[in-house]
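Quick one:
INPUT:
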């Protein structure tokens, strides 16, 4: 299933194949540029993975929108790819079978507590890919390579939901 933002040039994404391997899940996405006259560019690297407890959904972000920048941490720009007008490209997204997240304890603690979450077949995986109709060029005056500049570059997002595997 594909969801996308309305208006302007569009990238359409569909799940071509999902392969579960030892320690990771490979999602092969077919990315199609529906604009007949302009190349479209997209983020081609996982930027964050979050878990929505209420929906049992892992959200795999190839986008910097809404991503928290940690002061003092290294900010690395993602890898980008492009699709020629009217063409199709394959994007392989590798997702670890387990993610670790800091536990929200509600109160300050002396030690950080973490949860280890396994992406099991009963969970939904939602992939969000940021795209634009212009190539991304970092500002050479921005020495920190602020990831928020990638978020402001994005013209839209395409989303692909990978439903949970049905039990037999």
């Amino acid at each position: 299933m594909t969801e996308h933002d309305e208006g302007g040039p569009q990238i359409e994404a569909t799940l071509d194949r999902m392969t579960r391997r030892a320690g990771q899940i490979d999602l092969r996405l077919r990315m199609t540029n529906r604009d007949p006259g302009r190349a479209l560019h997209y983020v081609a690297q996982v930027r964050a993975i979050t878990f929505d407890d209420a929906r049992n959904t892992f959200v795999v972000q190839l986008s910097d929108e809404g991503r928290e920048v940690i002061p003092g941490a290294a900010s690395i720009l993602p890898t980008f790819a492009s699709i020629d007008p009217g063409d199709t490209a394959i994007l392989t997204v590798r997702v670890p079978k387990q993610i670790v997240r800091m536990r929200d304890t509600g109160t300050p603690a002396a030690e950080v507590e973490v949860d280890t979450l396994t992406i099991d077949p009963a969970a939904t995986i939602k992939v969000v890919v940021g795209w634009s109709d212009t190539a991304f060029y970092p500002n050479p005056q921005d020495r920190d390579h602020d990831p928020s500049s990638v978020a402001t570059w994005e013209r839209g997002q395409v989303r692909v939901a990978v439903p949970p595997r049905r039990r037999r």
